[in-house]
Amino acid sequence: MVTKTFLLGASGYIGGDALFALIQAHPEYEIACLVRNSDKGTLVASQHSKVRLVYGGLDNVDLLEQEARKADIVLNCTPDRVDTAEALCKGLAARKGDRPGFLIHTSGNAILFFPDTDRKTFGEASTKVYDDWDGIGEVTSVPDHALHRKTDKVVIDADGPRAKTAIVCPPTIYGKGRGPSNQISMQVPDMAKITLERKKGFQVGAGENRMPYVHIHDLSECYLKLVEAAAAGGGKATWGKEGYYFVESGEQSWGSISKAIATAAHKQGFLPSNEVFTITDKEADKMIHFGSAMWGANSRNRAIRARKLLGWSPKEKALDAYIAEAVDTEAKNLGLVQGHASKVAG
């Protein structure tokens, strides 16, 4: 029996790479992808000609419910929306047949920002480290005002005999994606871009806050293992209230990342020095939306469940080995690096 998968976010950074990994591993799966318009559809089809394109938005709840009802597995890699999650869960629960449907939902470890955002303590160190194994009860009962929490609750509460659910919670993601459209992440590239524009390094407050990270390819490997478990009727994976998966391969302070970016930019000749200057949370918010928390809050966690149950093991290079590449890419995007043809022409 062919596994039918409905994927949301195929033209995005996370979803595009997850789709690539899924098709590489299982070309036999029947995959339908939600796309917003014909332009996005053309991009997806140009890379994956066999996927079925479903045209609509995340607010087309009737369409989402209908497609979820047809699928064995729904992989949602889009920004979390309560109405989207409700429609997908409702559709899966209404499936025909003896086997339950499975929803793999994407959250984000900004859900752990709330202690710092509540207290307005940005750039400060924290000893608090969450985990998805012994500490799973704490993770799945964070305050309702925490980011992503409302949608996470919908997904957790929807788990039952007809619809099994799991949540993947990525941290800061880095590396070039393999999808058809967006192939670049945000937090580190945005900091590199602004550092180059300002011609000086910066950090929020003391820069002592820490965050975990994962390469996009390693994240996709975790999605793949969960999809494979779902295709096997659940496999060794945990579903339901304890089916919550952090995905990380290490952690660093944002101060050390700021310093690494400034150092790389200085070595490449774009900054007069590798000095890092302190900015306030309000200044960070003016640079990018929610910059105070994105660069200044703690979100420390350990990915135990995926390692223990799924055999997931990150294989890509660590974040610090990627910094120089990120600076080089952003410099080129800003026109600060001459192309090969220009260099040859003198």
> In angstroms, what is the radius of gyration?
21 Å
N-C termini distance = 61 Å
Would you tell me the overall average pLDDT? 96
Helix fraction, binned, reads 40-55%
Strand order of the largest sheet: 3-2-1-4-5-7-11
Strand tally, please? 14
Summed up, the helix count is 15
Classify the beta-strand content into a percent band.
15-25%
**What string, H for helix and E for strand, traces the elements in order?**
EHEHEHEHEHEHHEEHEEHEEHEHHEHHH
Inertia-based shape: globular
Question: Could you describe the largest sheet, including whether it forms a barrel?
Answer: 7 strands, parallel
Structural class: alpha/beta
Give unreliable regions as ranges. 338-346
Structural commentary:
It is a single chain. By secondary structure, this protein is α/β, with parallel strands linked by helices. The protein has helices at about 15-25, 40-45, 60-70, 80-95, 115-120, 135-140, 150-160, 185-200, 215-230, 255-265, 280-285, 290-295, 305-310, 325-335, 340-345, and strands at about 5-10, 30-35, 50-55, 75, 100-105, 130, 165-170, 170-175, 200-205, 210-215, 245, 250-255, 275-280, 300. Strands 3-2-1-4-5-7-11 form a seven-stranded parallel β-sheet, with helices on both faces. It has a three-stranded mixed β-sheet with strand order 8-10-12. The N and C termini lie far apart (about 60 Å). Mean pLDDT is about 95; it is low at about 340-345.
